[in-house]
RNA sequence: GCUCCUGUAGUGUAGUCCGGCCCAUCAUUCUGGCUUCUCGAGCCAGGGACUCGGGUUCGAAUCCCGACGGGAGCACCA
């Protein structure tokens, strides 16, 4: 990357709701470059469309960035900066680089499609400045940046800089009716905030070309524009508006519902911000479009948490067995197979104890089979009881996790919406909010729930 | 339709600028084997790609041309 001095990066979302997986790429990449080059990362909230704003996003976005280890160095909110935009457009109007028109939208678009000039386009700067002042107060119309009407790319011919939105703005109330559009506000801010590197998705390629017109007219030096390819995320709902809709319909319990790919949900399931960061960095910033892969992300996460997660037994769909043994037996199960310092989960099992096994595990067993209760002993399986068989491992014996009466109810929620009800060792209560591994099942994050224990499935 | 971007295994990625060290890297997935107190774990092995067709060259994933494929934009959204 081309860097001189202190590079300044930015993340510039619209405040339509909490952040999701899709946002994390821009955040991770920008934050990584900030860190590596000792630069700055600016968060700029782009709230210039009064009717696409979720007020909670103003607080949530900085918090979620912080969770992602991407705490912004500075935060700007575009709706606080309208005077700046007004000033700059006046400069452009005065220089004849922009115009005000009241031509109806459809008609105006048609003219552009045919490379034709709007009838107001060539009025004098004075007349446009007056029209602009009027538009601030009343009337209808738009302010347009002149480009090249003959541009072969129809997307690049004259673009809107301001339009009238009468709706009340959550932060600014009804003080303003003339709002800048994305392309205008972005150009002005990227320059005035000293952004040196604009790192964003390829979908902005045309926007970049539009924004360059403003830099050119203002005589400003352009930042480095870098575009990375688009990511398609199959089976992952990332449209904020749609998520919001489904939450209100009760399809999801909220933004942190573990079926969602919001930052909140990922965090609650136990994804590490570092894993997300590493994943996107490994992806790089090429302009090729890519397909997102959960297994790849999960693998990164797993390598990060494996040696930090305690092991516990969880028995989904438990079946109760009585247990018969000539003498008491000691369960000695390490909290982690490779970390003896963490100690063991131990308890004494006698003939008074019940043992619970998962229905899924025993479905293929027949009476008389020998199985091993992990970290305890071998038993002979009968329809409703287990008889002590021997203590040492027997080659080829299936090994199952189990719980005794020292258990707690737990419901395990999967990202696909399914739920397992089962029993977990009571050690679980000491590890609320932690990510642990349910042996033979996968990593989960334990969550406090007033009624009974809940866990969210992370990955294998 | 117009314009722009892009094309290495199922997925992601290295190599492409400055042609030979690439019968193409790493990770993940998949398959097989081994292992036994996670067989939904661990270990090992294997399969799997330069989109296609021309050209330049002693030599091309790398350069040129064409075709085809994928994506985006053409909003008074961001």
Question: How would you describe this protein?
Answer:
The protein has three domains: 8-77 and 186-299, 3-Layer(aba) Sandwich (Rossmann fold); 82-181, Glutamyl-tRNA Synthetase, domain 3 (Alpha-Beta Complex), CATH 3.90.800.10; 309-460, Ribosomal Protein L25, Chain P (Beta Barrel). With 460 residues, it is α/β, with parallel strands linked by helices. The longest helix has 16 residues, at 21-36. 28% of the residues lie in helices and 27% in strands. A hairpin with a 5-residue loop joins β22 (407-413) and β23. It contains twelve helices and 26 strands. The strands form seven sheets. Strands 12-24-25-26-22-23-13 form a seven-stranded mixed β-sheet. It starts with 7 loop residues before the first strand and ends with a strand. α1 crosses α10 (273-283) and α10 crosses α11 (294-305). The chain binds one RNA strand of 78 nucleotides through α4, β5, β6, α6 and α7.
Concise structural overview:
This protein is an alpha/beta fold and 460 residues long. The chain is 28% helix and 27% strand. The chain contains 12 helices and 26 strands.
């Amino acid at each position: 990357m081309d860097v001189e001095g202190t590079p300044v990066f930015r993340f510039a979302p619209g405040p339509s709701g909490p952040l999701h997986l899709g946002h994390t790429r821009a955040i991770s990449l920008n934050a990584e470059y900030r860190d590596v080059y000792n630069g700055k990362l600016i968060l700029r909230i782009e709230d210039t469309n009064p009717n696409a704003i979720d007020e909670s996003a103003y607080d949530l976005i900085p918090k979620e960035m912080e969770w992602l280890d991407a705490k912004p160095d500075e935060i700007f909110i575009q709706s606080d900066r309208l005077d700046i935009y007004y000033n700059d457009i006046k400069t452009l109007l005065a220089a004849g680089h922009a115009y005000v028109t009241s031509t109806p939208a459809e008609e105006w678009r048609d003219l552009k499609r045919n490379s034709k000039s709007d009838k107001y386009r060539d009025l004098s700067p004075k007349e446009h400045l007056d029209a602009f002042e009027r538009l601030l107060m009343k009337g209808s119309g738009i302010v347009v940046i002149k480009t090249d009407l003959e541009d072969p790319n129809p997307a690049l011919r004259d673009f809107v800089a301001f339009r009238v939105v009468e709706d009340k703005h959550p932060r600014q109330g009804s003080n303003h009716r003339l709002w800048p559009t994305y392309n205008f506000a972005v150009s002005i801010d990227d320059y005035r905030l000293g952004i040196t590197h604009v790192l964003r998705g390829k979908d902005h390629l045309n926007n970049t070309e539009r924004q360059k017109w403003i830099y050119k007219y203002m005589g400003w030096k352009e930042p480095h524009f870098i575009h990375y390819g688009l990511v398609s995320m199959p089976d992952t709902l990332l449209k904020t508006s749609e998520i919001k809709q489904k939450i209100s319909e009760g399809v999801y319990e909220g933004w942190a519902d573990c079926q969602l790919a919001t930052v909140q949900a990922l965090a609650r399931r136990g994804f590490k911000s570092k894993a997300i960061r590493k994943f996107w960095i490994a992806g790089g910033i090429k302009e090729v479009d890519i397909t997102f892969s959960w297994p790849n992300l999960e693998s990164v996460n797993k390598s990060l948490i494996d040696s930090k997660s305690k092991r516990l037994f969880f028995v989904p769909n438990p079946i109760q067995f009585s247990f018969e043994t000539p003498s008491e037996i000691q369960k000695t199960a390490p909290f982690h197979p490779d970390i003896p310092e963490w100690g063991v989960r131990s308890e004494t099992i006698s003939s008074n104890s019940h043992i619970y096994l998962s229905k899924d595990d025993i479905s293929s067993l027949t009476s008389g089979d020998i199985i091993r209760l992990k970290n305890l002993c071998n038993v002979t399986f009968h329809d409703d009881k287990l008889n002590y068989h021997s203590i040492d491992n027997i080659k080829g014996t299936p090994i199952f996790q189990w719980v005794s009466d020292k258990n707690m109810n737990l419901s395990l929620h999967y990202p696909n919406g399914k739920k397992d009800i089962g029993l977990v060792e009571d050690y679980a209560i000491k590890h609320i909010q932690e990510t642990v591994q349910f042996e033979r099942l996968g990593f989960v994050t334990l969550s406090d729930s007033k009624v009974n224990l809940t866990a969210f499935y992370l990955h294998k």
